[in-house]
Amino acid sequence: MSENLALKSFVVLMKSSKSIQEQIKKDISKHGMKTSDFTILEALYHKGRQTVKQISDAVLINTGSITYVIDKLETKNLLERSNCKEDRRVVYIQITEQGKQLMDEIFPKHQSVIEDIFSGLTDEEKKTLIELLKKAGKEGETEQ
Fold first, then answer.
1. Is there a contact between 113 and 24 (Cβ–Cβ < 8 Å)?
2. pLDDT band for position 2 (50/70/90)?
3. Which Pfam families did the record assign (predicted)?
């Protein structure tokens, strides 16, 4: 029986993803945060003011759960809400100065952890990995 490379690729991808996610989760928890808190702050830190929908799409957390996390982060004064003047249904979320200071401290350390995870790959291998994952992801979207 021949080796099923598609199945093997899938299994290796899932195991690798799980391992990396666990390392990232462990790093984020060192800073007293949950992954959902960190990913929302990180999105606002790098992209600026966003709507709840934009954040939800960026961090892959559903809008029902994201509201709870935003409430918690707002209570901690790490982000704030503001209403859209053109459309009252739209609420913008932005990082506060306190949130920015926290991310200024945490993010470089977090980025270093990610760089360590991928340190065994050359830049060319990283570029190839990115292209292959994008290609597989696009195939997955068309199969639905």
1. yes
2. low
3. MarR (PF01047)
CA 131 to chain centre: 19
Closest CA to 90 of 53, 55, 61: 53
Strand partners, 94: 80
User: What confidence tens digit (pLDDT) does each residue in 92-101 have?
Assistant: 999 999 999 9
Query: Is 70 exceeded by the pLDDT of residue 80?
Result: yes
Whats the size of the chain, residue-wise? 144
- Average the pLDDT over 34-55 and give the result: 93
Residue 59 near residue 40 (C-beta atoms within 8 A): yes
- The DSSP 8-state label assigned to residue 19 in this structure reads H
**What distance in Å separates the CA atoms of residue 55 and residue 98, rounded to the nearest whole number?**
19
CB-side neighbour CA atoms (13 Å) of 115: 6
Domains with residue ranges and CATH for the chain: 28-133 (1.10.10.10)
Beta-carbon neighbour count of residue 54 at 10 Å? 15
